[in-house]
C-alpha cells in the first residue's frame, strides 16, 4: 500500500461511524458541542490573549524553547493554536476535525515533541481555557452551572483529541520499528550472502595453487579419494598422469625465479587448455604436476599428453624446456589406492626422466612400462 495515496483517516480506518463510537466512549455528546459553541464569542474575543498566555508559559520550559527553536516557527505555532482553539469552540467534531488532530500528532512526532511535553501543553491549555470560563461567569456572561458544564465538555473534548494524537504517535512508532526491522533483515541477508561468497572464495583459495591456479597438493589427495570412489562405484578406470619438468633448476639458475615462475604459470594454463572438464589438474609441488583423469585409460591419457606437449611447445617461448611423464591406469575392476597410484606413476615418470637425461626431450612411460619419446613411442622394458 502506497501511504501517500491514502489520507490519515483512511489509513487508520476512521469512518464516521468509528468516530461516533469513540465520541460515545468519551461521552462526548451534542450537548457538549453546544456547551462549547456557547462559549465561542467570548473565547474569540480573547483569542490572541489566550494564545499569548499559552506560549508565554510554555516558553518558560527550556525543552519547549529548544523544540520551537526560532521566531518563525513560534509565529506559525501561534497561528495553528488560534485555529485549534477556534475548532474546539466550533461545536463540530467530524472527520475534518479528526484529520486535523491526526495531523497535529504527526507533526509533533516528526519534530520530536515527547508525549510528556505534549501532555503538559494540553494541561496548560485546559488550565487557561478553564480560567476563561471562570471569567465568563465572573463577568456575568454565563451562570455558574453553565461555566461548569463548559469546563466538563472541554475536558471530554481535549481527552478525545489527545487519543487521536497518540494514535498517530504510536502509528509512526510502529512504522519506524517496521522500517528498522526491514533494514535489519536486508542487512542480515546481504551479510549472509557476503559471508557465503567469501567462504566459497576462501574454500576455493585453500584448494588452489597460488601461482598456477591449479589444485594444490592437499586438494589433489582429496579429489583423488573422491574420484577413485566414484570410479569404483561406476566400475570405470581412472588414469593418473604425473610429470616433472626436466632441468628446471637450470632455468631458475640461469634466468632467475621470475622466468621460472612464468614457465610454471604457462604450463598451468596449457594443462587447463589440454584437458576435459572432468579431468583434474593439480600442481603436486615444485615443478611436479598431476592430472587425474576419471573414466580414462592410459590411451586417452597419452592423447592428452600429446595435446599438452604440442600446446606447450607451440608457445614459442625462447626458453626451451621439456618434461618427463609417467602414466598409470587403475581399474576398472580393482582400483588402487591414491598413494599406490601416485607411487606407480611417479616410478614411471622417473623411468622417462632417466631416458631424458640420456637424450633430451619429452619422454613418457605408460602403464605397460613402455617408454617413448614424444611423437614416436617405442617399447622398452622399463621395469
Ligand atoms: N621459479 C620457481 N621455481 C620453483 C618453484 N618451486 C620449485 N622450484 C624450483 O624447481 C627446481 C626443482 O629442482 P629439481 O628437483 O632439482 O628438478 P630439476 O632441476 O627439474 O631436475 P630434474 O627433475 O632432475 O630434471 C628447484 O630449483 C626449485 O627451487 C616455484 O614455485 N617457482
Descriptive overview:
The protein is α+β, with helices and mostly antiparallel strands. The chain folds into 2 domains: 3-185, Globins (Globin-like); 217-378, Alpha-Beta Plaits, CATH 3.30.70.270. The chain has helices at residues 8-11, 16-25, 30-45, 47-58, 62-68, 71-88, 95-110, 115-138, 144-207, 217-234, 248-255, 257-274, 298-313, 338-358; strands at 238-245, 280-285, 288-294, 323-330, 363-365, 371-373, 376-378. It has a 7-stranded mixed beta sheet with strand order 2-3-1-4-5-6-7, sandwiched between helices. Helix 4 crosses helix 6 and helix 11 crosses helix 12 (257-274). The longest helix is centred in the middle third of the chain and has 64 residues, at 144-207. The model is unreliable at 375-383 (pLDDT under 50). The structure holds guanosine-5'-triphosphate (GTP). Residues 211, 244-249, 252, 257, 260-261, 264, 286-287, 353 line the site of guanosine-5'-triphosphate (GTP). Residues 236-365 form the GGDEF domain. Residues 174-208 form a coiled coil.
Which bin fits the share of residues in helices?
A: 55-70%
Number of E-state strands: 7
The rough form would be described as rod-shaped
* CATH architecture descriptor of the largest domain: Orthogonal Bundle
Question: How many independent structural domains?
Answer: 2
Q: What's the main sheet like?
A: 7 strands, mixed
User: Which small molecules are bound?
Assistant: guanosine-5'-triphosphate
* Range of strand content: 5-15%
Structural class: alpha+beta
Tell me the distance between the termini: 82 Å
Amino acid at each position: 500500500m502506497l501511504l501517500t495515496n491514502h489520507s490519515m483517516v483512511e489509513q487508520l480506518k476512521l469512518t464516521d461511524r468509528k468516530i461516533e463510537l469513540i465520541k460515545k466512549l468519551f461521552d462526548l455528546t451534542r450537548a457538549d458541542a453546544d456547551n462549547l459553541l456557547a462559549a465561542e464569542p467570548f473565547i474569540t474575543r480573547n483569542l490572541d490573549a489566550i494564545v499569548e498566555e499559552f506560549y508565554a508559559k510554555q516558553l518558560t520550559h527550556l525543552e519547549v524553547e529548544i523544540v520551537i527553536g526560532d521566531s518563525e516557527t513560534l509565529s506559525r505555532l501561534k497561528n495553528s493554536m488560534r485555529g485549534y482553539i477556534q475548532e474546539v469552540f466550533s461545536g463540530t467534531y467530524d472527520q475534518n476535525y479528526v484529520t486535523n488532530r491526526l495531523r497535529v500528532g504527526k507533526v509533533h512526532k516528526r519534530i520530536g515533541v515527547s508525549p510528556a511535553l505534549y501532555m503538559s501543553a494540553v494541561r496548560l491549555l485546559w488550565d487557561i481555557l478553564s480560567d476563561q470560563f471562570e471569567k465568563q461567569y465572573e463577568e456575568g456572561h454565563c451562570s455558574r452551572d453553565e461555566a461548569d458544564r463548559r469546563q466538563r465538555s472541554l475536558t471530554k473534548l481535549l481527552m478525545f483529541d489527545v487519543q487521536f494524537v497518540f494514535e498517530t504517535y504510536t502509528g509512526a512508532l510502529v512504522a519506524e520499528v517496521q522500517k528498522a526491522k526491514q533494514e535489519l533483515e536486508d542487512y542480515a541477508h546481504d551479510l549472509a550472502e557476503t559471508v557465503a561468497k567469501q567462504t566459497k572464495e576462501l574454500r576455493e583459495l585453500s584448494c588452489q595453487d597460488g601461482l598456477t591456479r591449479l589444485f594444490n597438493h592437499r586438494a589433489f589427495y582429496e579429489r583423488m579419494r573422491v574420484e577413485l570412489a566414484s570410479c569404483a562405484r561406476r566400475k570405470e578406470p581412472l588414469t593418473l598422469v604425473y610429470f616433472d619438468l626436466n632441468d628446471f633448476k637450470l632455468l631458475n639458475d640461469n634466468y632467475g625465479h621470475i622466468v621460472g615462475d612464468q614457465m610454471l604459470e604457462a604450463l598451468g594454463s596449457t594443462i587447463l587448455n589440454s584437458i576435459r572438464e572432468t579431468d583434474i589438474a593439480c600442481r603436486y609441488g615444485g615443478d611436479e604436476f598431476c592430472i587425474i583423469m576419471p573414466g580414462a585409460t592410459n590411451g586417452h591419457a597419452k592423447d592428452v599428453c600429446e595435446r599438452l606437449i604440442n600446446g606447450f611447445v607451440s608457445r614459442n617461448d625462447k626458453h626451451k624446456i621439456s618434461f618427463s611423464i609417467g602414466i598409470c591406469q587403475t581399474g576398472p575392476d580393482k582400483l588402487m589406492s591414491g598413494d599406490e597410484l601416485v607411487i606407480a606413476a611417479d616410478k614411471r615418470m622417473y623411468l622417462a626422466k632417466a631416458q631424458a637425461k640420456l637424450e633430451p626431450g619429452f619422454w613418457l612411460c605408460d602403464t605397460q612400462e613402455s617408454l617413448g619419446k614424444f611423437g614416436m613411442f617405442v617399447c622398452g622394458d622399463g621395469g
